[in-house]
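User: Let's play a game. I give you a shape written as tokens, and you guess the letters that built it. Ready? Here's round one.
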């Protein structure tokens, strides 16, 4: 019976390591801080927008968006659409 508990502990530890090392966003806070620099923005709205954007784009995509290095017109249109919808969605929550 103790072997089952050991296996459960090993699996739980593995899930914890994977979650903390690979599933955390390195761009969430910088994106939120950039949003906070916009005049009239609130912390709640920027937090909401950051969550919304990170649902739709990967960390690498968000890095490109923050560095203004989006080159493809189709992707640029998608970025504009997602951010616009995110602003509307977050404004409706307030």
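Assistant: Ready! My guess for every position:
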């Amino acid at each position: 019976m103790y072997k089952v508990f050991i296996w459960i502990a090993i699996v739980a530890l593995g899930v914890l390591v994977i979650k903390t090392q690979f599933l955390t966003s390195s761009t969430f806070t910088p994106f939120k801080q950039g949003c906070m620099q916009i005049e009239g923005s609130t912390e709640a709205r920027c937090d909401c927008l950051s969550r919304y954007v990170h649902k739709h784009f990967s960390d690498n995509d968000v890095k490109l968006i923050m560095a203004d290095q989006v080159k493809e017109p189709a992707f640029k249109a998608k970025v504009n659409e997602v951010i616009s919808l995110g602003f509307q969605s977050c404004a409706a929550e307030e």
